């Protein structure tokens, strides 16, 4: 079996939904979960950052569980490893930390069990695990992932994103995706669903055409989830208003929240960041690039 002595795996963060693309759209962000992995007698997880303080450092760690589950899914047994982990992706903030961990688990299993998986196989496991392809699609393929969950996995197409930057407004509290999903309704009116899905389609077409002004405007026409999650994010409409007044293309709840994503052109970024920092001194405002790649995996000494 062809196993590397030590591997460095980097997985990008992601922002899902982009407004009306609920459970279907995600964009990869230039913030990374980084793992250095090597074979070991026993499982060991060393956490090297404040961001992940308090997560388990043994076999119960989510990364370990995902690696084991992915190996089993593809008919192999994951050998124990020592994982040195650090991350720039804040947990439970709507920036795809769990999706990045799932993709990291697949890459660990792929490398240490020599599975030789292609992207479609990785996507199948990831979407079955996550239940929707938006974040995992973006973390795996990079760019704008456009996908649909089907019976036995997901169909995902990734499109390049060029000409826009992200500004993320991150509140100082966590919101579990599960909690945020519990606020969603069982039913939606036909008219609202038609309107939101038309806006989502137009968002995708606008990104393909490089028309970010139109894409930004479509981001702000959701009916699927933001109206129901708003009570957990009372700052959201104010972030959107300030960003727009400062020259942004558009603003939406990032994933399930509580973070908010603003898209803008590079020249407008400093003005928007400054305005948001002044209005929300207790929040972290970060300029983050959109990236067109998925996992970066390299053998290291
Ligand atoms: N790198 C990681 N290592 C271990 N567990 C992780 C990692 N990333 C995410 N998790 C787990 O996933 C949870 C957050 O998942 P979720 O509620 O879906 O939020 P997010 O929007 O960040 O994906 C964390 O509280 C933690 O239990
Ligand atoms: N479509 C999902 C996306 C969840 O993203 P996360 O980054 O918050 O995990 C949803 O809106 O629930």
TrEMBL record:
UniProt xrefs under InterPro entries: GHMP_kinase_C_dom, GHMP_kinase_C_sf, GHMP_kinase_N_dom, GHMP_knse_ATP-bd_CS, Homoserine_kinase, Ribosomal_Su5_D2-typ_SF, Ribsml_uS5_D2-typ_fold_subgr
Swiss-Prot/TrEMBL keywords: Amino-acid biosynthesis, ATP-binding, Cytoplasm, Kinase, Nucleotide-binding, Threonine biosynthesis, Transferase
GO BP annotation list: threonine biosynthetic process
Domain (GHMP kinase C-terminal): residue spans on this chain: 204-282
Enzyme Commission code(s) on record: 2.7.1.39
PANTHER family in UniProt: HOMOSERINE KINASE, HOMOSERINE/4-DIPHOSPHOCYTIDYL-2-C-METHYL-D-ERYTHRITOL KINASE
Entries under HAMAP family matching the protein: Homoser_kinase (MF_00384)
Name the UniProt record assigns to this protein: Homoserine kinase
Source species of the chain: Pradoshia eiseniae
Taxonomy of the source species: Bacteria, Bacillati, Bacillota, Bacilli, Bacillales
Underlying gene: thrB
